[in-house]
Here is the input.
Amino acid sequence: MIALNGVAASSGAALGQFFLLTTEIPLSSPSPSTLSIDEEKAALTAAIDFVGKDLSDRAERSHGELQEILLAVGEIATDPALLEEAFNFIDQGHTASYAINQATDIFKELLLASGGYLAERVSDVANICDRLLCRLGGVEYPEIPHFTVPTVLIARDLSPADTTDLQSDKVLAIVTEGGGPTSHTAIIARSRGIAAVVACPGIVDYAKSHYGEMIGVDATTGEVVFSPPLELQSRLIAKIEKIRRRRESQVVRTSSGYQTLDGRIIPIYANIGRQEDVKVALEAGADGVGLLRTELLYLDRKDPPTLEEQTQIYTDLFAPFGTKKVVIRTLDAGADKPMAFINFDDEPNPALGVRGYRTIVDHEDLLRIQLKAIAAAARRTEADVWVMAPMITLPEEAQRFVDMAKSYGIKTAGVMIEVPAAIFHADEITKICDFVSIGTNDLGQYLHAADRESAPLAGFNDPWQPALLRAVHLVAQAGLRNNCPVGVCGEAASDATLGSILLGLGVTSLSCNVSTLRDVAAGVTALNFTDIQLAAVDVLAASTAQATRSSARNRLVSLEELGL
Ligand code: PEP
Ligand code: MG
Here is the structure.
């Protein structure tokens, strides 16, 4: 038996045979080309046309999030700047293969330097390069085969294009060596209900040397085991069955909302970022929206959206929620989400630079127009609209934001707590605000000084890290003292066990990823609130991420019964 550990990225479990997707890509040599410059340029242009068309065909066959990702990848592949960069190398006498390899390396370095979401695009650029090298080398790009028997898919990493034709019913689980909890593999696996473990070191080499063996995957704990012993096999089989039964049954939602067994109402909201998410959130049974990421609406814009445009967009987003709550966040631009209509200076460390609320220093007009549009859209609909600002560090920033929001007639204004200093100002901030929402994704990365997108640092960003949970506790207690609701809208709230513990720490609502909302609701409604509170006390005393997780799981045993 070989047991490995990765990061659980999409809940579920699997037991069966595995397939290792190996990508043997033709090498590109720096030796001078034997063809003319024009011939090499023509070959590269033709390869780019082919790959660009293939990506747009794949986008057409897809829908939802995958379709959007594929369209964006297609744009990178056909970006004239990439071609121009490659042509420079061809002009120096290199082959088209070498030129595109070098050009994509330059693109990857630029993306990596930006960090965050942009750094995640590196794997897209690498995949585009692989596809082009195959085309130029006259070999077929290695695609995921059509499985006849349900199979666990193992890969170094998966690009969105790789997963276009993935058969959800034949893939038991996905395990990758790369990626992180917010990587494409994770997003796609969650949206298709496939169990996934990412950032699993050694998986590819072990898969090569253990071909033909059975594999067990527990995507709740991140455990991956080759030739699992009989006891583990029966545990996984039981878990798979529990998950199947739970997914087939309805989660009970009373007329007042989701309720623990002892009658505590727990609001469970959805995180959304696009109009398409609205329907999915409502179908998943969301009590409303706990985080509307407005920057995602404008990432591809060259000019700032006008007041009228924004008013219409927010009206369309709020209206379907009827009288439900919608928490909308003002632009969280900068760092990994640069926006073309905001001028960012070159910063050596953008994640610690001018981002989120900090962009207000030079762009107060953008915030004012956005608040005005939100207020107008709130008046046009019945939704209970709450507004918050991202990346607030100091109480005076919170005060300025709340005052500004109210000056436009917004009734409920608050801030996100995602910068460590704000934890130590939690008393002042929760007195100033009508509510706060904890962004555990950023708070985790800033508490541990570890980029949230980095696969090698994924352990620091494990949301079970004690420092993060203790920080949540401090903020929640300040909220209770000052009668200020404290929600969590970071990914930590998207796990049924951890979400429950957050409630036990004093958090008053959860806002989850739409794809996991049902799991979280199933978990919370299967527990007693008093048990949750007792479990949270034990979790606070644990000093490693493993210990907090196992302490919670041992305490909240009924979640195990649901395969959560
Ligand atoms: C967070 O940081 O936890 C959060 C919800 O915000 P985002 O992921 O958009 O940075
Ligand atoms: Mg954040």
Summary: The pocket of magnesium ion (ligand 2) is lined by residues 390, 418, 439, 441-442 (CB under 6 Å). The mean pLDDT is 92. The chain has three domains: 2-23+143-247, 37-137, 258-562.
